[in-house]
Design the sequence.
């Protein structure tokens, strides 16, 4: 938590503000009023309890893919494969949900476990390749993305073909959905589902692993300085494999929250964009679990509010995407922000 | 013209530190002017200003009496100021001539005119007694020769003022002597030299005057001939220092480390160690002397478990450790102070306390059932920091990066010694440290020996080897040339062995 409110929090905040500012400039360029634009954008995300629910539901997979990227990054690994891990996790959950007939709590448990397992395997392979053969994880995870893309392309029409369309699976039954009545009711019929709680638990567990355990100590040590870790007797290769596996598991779980929570079937021919947005979430969140949580909720709000903004003004929804892109850009160049912040602070100190 | 270069009242500030505070340095034509100071005192900053890498916040620079603004290294080159860098900037698969003309190639039409360049190189080489073959490839010539190529680069560009940055750190004693000869030739031909160094002996041997800086401030400029080494050291550190480590005679005990006939492949997949056998006993310091890159790192990495031996065995207190993992060796009471403290010794982005427990974090009381115990770690780090005089402004939670070099090294030394090892391996334990920190770390190493521990020390500083060791093993080309009693050998003899000449043979 301390980290969240420290320097990286300020950096993230500045990146967000600069992004919003850039968005405002764009709105002015197309002749719209940025104040009403932002008003409708934020109202679209937060106006009613239902919209808040949708914001959180949109944020849920982002929290998990963000965690996935952030966790790998803490071990010095760049997980580009969250999309593929998420997709395979979604496929596993859907497959279980469409096959097994069990009471809802039990069925959901098995589905979630399957999603986690699928994602973990998709992370394990690049981890092993990295540790044993020094194959760069960026290359390996991108390849794994396509393997899961084509796996879904084959498996869904072959075994879970939808009632009308070849390109998507059958809808899962209500018993197999992470949506539950009381929660949907509480949020006025929104897409919100149990995935949010799974994501929250994951944030807490990952934060605990990173900060408090021997395992986390080793992972971070390897991420900061692999050589010194090896000299201290830490098995760097094992850390790399474990880290990629856990990162994959997080993204896999994210797939479950999306395909059997937010949605109720799985399409072929689509790599989920949430996988790649996870990189941005992780970046903006300063690679810390709670930072990821905050960043994901913020992005979720922009995503779910942009439709309303478009409906109420002449501003196209792409402006919201541009704002997100600009924020990513500013957080990627956060070193610049930090440096200027230091300079500013120094000048203020000198003026006293 | 009284001075060829004058740097007057130079001030340079970096965020948080004043690197140079009102420093003046005046270089007479035809003199060797030493620039002495501890690490971080501001020597490199001052020279980088002269070489145009930094611009000063205040102060003036005059070259041949005229005020100049040196905004980048090209301006410095045009003013006849050249720098021989500590780490050579050479293209290894180019010839000497090609390296020298790099950046100012002469062309004849579309074709590179290396022939006349080579002739000019040859002429310069003869004039200054450099003895460099213009057609040799860099990868085929010795380090000392490579340094001469760097010098030649400056001469080729008609430099009048040459800055030597710690030039002797990579050389054997014989090569050092030759370099001093070359420097004298340069002076005789009317060049002027600024010599950056922290080695007092060299200053006494060659420099005319010496400017000392201490913590960014000028401590004074003195005439070398009339100033003692002790006085120079005092100016540099700000207090009196002892050079000799107090060390009593001691009878070594049982063999602790027994290396038997190991052969090891180097990173380039050639034999880096050939059939090496060494024994280190309890209560003795065995020093490994040698020029850098002669098998020292292969030896140390094999003993610590970072590298596999092709053949041979290693025993620690009678136990075969040849196939043990790094952690098993640490558990068997082996401690290791690596040469590169940033790359191998510390995790710079970790806090000091996390670095302190880097080898024991998984044991009680630092953790239990997989969970770290922050309080125990902090208590422990505080105690070791106190015991080993590690000074950190923000306490044990500050990152290791925020510490000075000396305090970083003390952190490592403290961590390793506090684990109460039977064998301490120290590689270049005082590299880049100031006199005060060196004195401290030497004392601690000798203390280990006096407590009956075995110490294997690798150093490129011959003084350090001669000063601390009970026995000296000289390594050259991956082979142990000889193992001698430290008291019964002269610096010169060790120097010859470092060059591969066995005792009794002539060079």
Sequence:
């Amino acid at each position: 938590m301390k980290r969240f409110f420290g320097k990286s929090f300020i950096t993230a905040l500045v990146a967000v503000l600069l992004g919003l500012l850039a968005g405002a400039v764009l709105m002015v360029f197309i002749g719209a009023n940025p104040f009403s634009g932002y008003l409708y954008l934020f109202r679209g995300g937060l106006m009613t309890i239902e919209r808040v629910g949708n914001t959180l539901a949109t944020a849920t997979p982002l929290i998990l893919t963000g965690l996935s990227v952030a966790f790998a990054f803490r071990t010095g690994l760049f997980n580009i494969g969250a999309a593929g891990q998420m997709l395979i996790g979604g496929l596993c959950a859907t497959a279980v949900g469409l096959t097994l007939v069990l009471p809802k709590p039990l069925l959901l448990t098995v589905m979630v476990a399957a999603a986690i397992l699928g994602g973990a395997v998709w992370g394990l392979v690049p981890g092993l390749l990295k540790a044993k053969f020094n194959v760069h994880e960026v290359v390996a995870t991108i390849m794994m993305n396509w393997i899961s893309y084509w796996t879904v392309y084959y498996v869904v029409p072959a075994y879970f073909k939808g009632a009308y369309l070849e390109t998507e699976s059958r809808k899962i039954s209500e018993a197999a959905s992470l949506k539950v009545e009381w929660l949907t009711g509480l949020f006025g019929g929104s897409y919100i589902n149990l995935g949010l709680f799974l994501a929250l638990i994951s944030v807490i567990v990952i934060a605990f692993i990173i900060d408090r355990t021997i395992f986390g100590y080793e992972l971070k040590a390897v991420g900061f300085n692999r050589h010194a870790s090896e000299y201290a007797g830490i098995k760097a290769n094992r850390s790399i494999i474990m880290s990629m596996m856990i990162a994959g598991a997080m993204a896999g779980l994210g797939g479950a929250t999306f395909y059997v929570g937010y949605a109720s079937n799985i399409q072929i021919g689509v790599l989920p964009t949430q996988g790649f947005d996870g990189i941005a979430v992780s970046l903006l969140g300063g690679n810390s679990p709670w930072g990821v949580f905050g960043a994901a909720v913020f992005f979720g709000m922009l995503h779910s509010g942009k439709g309303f903004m478009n409906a109420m003004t002449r501003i196209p929804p792409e402006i919201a995407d541009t704002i997100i892109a600009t924020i990513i850009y500013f957080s990627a160049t956060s070193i610049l922000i930090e440096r200027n912040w230091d300079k500013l602070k120094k000048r203020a100190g000198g003026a006293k | 013209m009284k001075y060829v270069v004058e740097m007057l009242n130079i001030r340079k500030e970096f965020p948080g530190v004043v690197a140079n505070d009102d420093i003046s340095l005046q270089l007479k034509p035809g003199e060797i002017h030493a620039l002495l100071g501890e690490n971080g005192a501001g020597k490199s900053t001052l020279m980088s200003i002269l070489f145009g890498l930094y611009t000063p916040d205040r102060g003036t620079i005059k070259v041949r009496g005229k005020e100049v603004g040196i905004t980048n290294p090209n301006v410095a080159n045009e003013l006849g100021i050249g720098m021989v860098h500590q780490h050579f900037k050479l293209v290894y698969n180019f010839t000497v001539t090609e390296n020298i003309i790099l950046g100012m190639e002469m062309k004849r039409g579309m074709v590179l005119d290396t022939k006349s360049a080579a002739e000019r190189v040859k002429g310069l080489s003869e004039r200054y007694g450099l003895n460099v073959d213009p057609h040799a490839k860099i990868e085929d010539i010795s380090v000392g020769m490579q340094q001469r190529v760097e010098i030649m680069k400056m001469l080729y560009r008609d430099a009048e003022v040459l800055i030597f940055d710690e030039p002797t750190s990579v050389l054997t004693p014989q090569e050092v002597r030759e370099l001093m000869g070359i420097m004298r030739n340069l002076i005789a031909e009317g060049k002027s030299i600024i010599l950056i160094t922290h080695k007092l002996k060299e200053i006494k041997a060659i420099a005319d005057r010496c400017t000392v800086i201490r913590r960014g401030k000028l401590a004074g400029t003195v005439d070398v001939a009339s100033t003692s080494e002790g006085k120079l050291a005092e100016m540099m550190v700000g207090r009196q220092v002892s050079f000799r480590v107090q060390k009593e005679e001691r009878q070594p005990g049982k063999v602790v480390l027994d290396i038997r006939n190991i052969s090891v492949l180097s990173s380039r997949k050639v034999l880096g160690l050939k059939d090496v056998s060494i024994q280190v006993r309890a209560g003795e310091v065995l020093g490994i002397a040698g020029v850098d890159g002669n098998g020292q790192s292969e030896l140390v990495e094999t003993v610590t478990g970072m590298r596999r031996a092709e053949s041979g065995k290693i025993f620690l207190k009678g136990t075969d450790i040849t196939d043990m993992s790094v952690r098993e060796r640490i558990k068997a009471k082996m401690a290791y102070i690596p040469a590169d403290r940033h790359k191998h010794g510390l995790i710079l982005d970790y806090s000091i306390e996390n670095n302190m427990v880097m080898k024991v974090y998984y044991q009680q009381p630092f953790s239990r059932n997989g969970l770290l115990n922050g309080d125990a770690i902090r208590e422990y780090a505080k105690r070791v920091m106190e015991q080993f005089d590690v000074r950190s402004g923000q306490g044990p939670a500050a990152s290791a990066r925020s510490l000075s070099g000396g305090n970083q090294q003390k952190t490592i030394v403290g961590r390793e010694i506090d684990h109460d090892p039977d064998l301490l391996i120290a590689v270049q334990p005082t590299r880049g440290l100031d006199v005060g920190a060196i004195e401290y770390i030497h004392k601690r190493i000798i203390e280990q020996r006096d407590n009956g521990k075995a110490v294997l020390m690798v150093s490129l500083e011959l003084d350090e080897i001669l000063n601390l060791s009970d026995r000296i093993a000289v390594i050259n080309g991956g082979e142990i040339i000889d193992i001698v009693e430290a008291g019964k050998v002269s610096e010169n003899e060790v120097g010859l062995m470092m060059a591969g000449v066995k005792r009794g043979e002539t060079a």
